[in-house]
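Follow-up to my earlier ticket, as requested here are the two runs.
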Amino acid sequence: MATLKITLDERRTKKNGTFPVVIRITHQSKSRDITTGYTANSKTFSKATGTFRKDDAANLELFKLLELYSNKLKALRASGLEHLSVQDLKEKLLLTESTGDLTIYDFWQKEICHLRSVNRYGSATIYQNTLGVFEQLVSLKLPFETFGYKGLLELGQKLFAGNRKVNTVGVYMRTFRAICNKAIHQDLVAQDWYPFKNYKIRKSKTTPRTLSLEEMRSFFQLDLSNDEMLYPYWCIGKLIFLLRGINLNDLLLLKPQNVPGDRLIYNRGKTGKSYSIQMLPEIEFLLSQFHSNHLLLGQFSKSQMEDPVK
């Protein structure tokens, strides 16, 4: 009989002493694991209960994932599992379901899990936060086809009724639109279903936060010694300007190999666009103020990079 349980994969120890938290499939006396994006050790996680000892939010997410795969396993049992190997079973559990079986909520949870598995934790957080807000307003445990333009209008009205700002609602709606587009691209729902076809996501102009030339001069001419707490952040601010407005996340994730000679070369994390910037003396000096490790600025250790959820 095939079973699922949340446990630690103690075969794979991370450098910080934690293990991946997985959903273990056992079938025909063999097992396979599905990653969850979480890590833990025996002090923070109970193998007996399959839960974190002091992290209710993480437990809730794990139970949602377990429920998702348990429902899929139940559906597979109806057609028989005897002819499937444990690897076949894992692949079927990870396969995108048919439109009739998959709800918006289930698909959304799968996308969050996928984003975490490829280390896109920022996007996963946005998806998770948006889903959490929507869950308080509407039920998404229904097939895509049953949620149309009318439902979208009602959702928008409820979002604004909560005194949320226009651009905040815009972030939520664009996230939902991305979910809908992914469902269409994966052939879960027909192209003509698209509820955003005639729906315009509102956007309000934000007050420009640009600095004047005088303010920029004042910033660059601050008198800070290198032993002051704000010094590294001041250097980072100047680097952002000198590196053509580089995104902070891209800057912090630069590696020594991004500077092969007299140029800094990197790909924008969000768009993949390549940039090649000449290493001016000012840039070289600012970079020299940091102690590089596997990262150019050395702001994160390898263990922090391996376990960013914590």
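Run two:
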Amino acid sequence: MKSIIAGQQTQTVYKDLRKLAEVAATMMDDSLKGKKPEVNDTKTYDNGTKVVPAYLLQPVSVDKSNYKQVLVDGGYYTEGDLK
């Protein structure tokens, strides 16, 4: 983010790791309980052997115009973290 703020990079793709951890933990918990984990994609993740059901997080394009809204207001960083 510091490179984007400094104008050295134009954008990055953000997926909230907190949400990723939450989804992964829920999927593991479901598996351990013998329940079928929730997935939201059954078509696009092909590992070369088969299409693997997955839970894909929606990526967010972050740039100089929206990093505060997405990352600071979203609680991922503080303003001080990005100085």
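The only thing I checked on run two: The chain has a mean pLDDT of 96. Let me know what else you need.
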